[in-house]
Amino acid sequence: MYEASMLLSSDRYVVTLTNSAAKFLKFIEQEINIDCLLMHQCQELPFVLSNLQQKAKFFPAVIVLNLEKEELENNYLQKKEFIYHEEEVKLISSELNCLEAEIEKAIGQFFNLSSPSKSQETPDNKEQNTIHSQQERLAEKLRERLGYLGVYYKRNPQNFLRNMPPGERQQFLDQLKSRYRKIVLSYFSQNNTLNNQIDEFVNIAFFSDVPVTKIVEIHMDLMDDFSKQLKLEGRNEELLLDYRLTLIDTIAHLCEMYRRSIPKES
Question: For 191-217, what is each residue's pLDDT tens digit?
Answer without folding.
Answer: 778 888 888 888 889 888 999 999 999
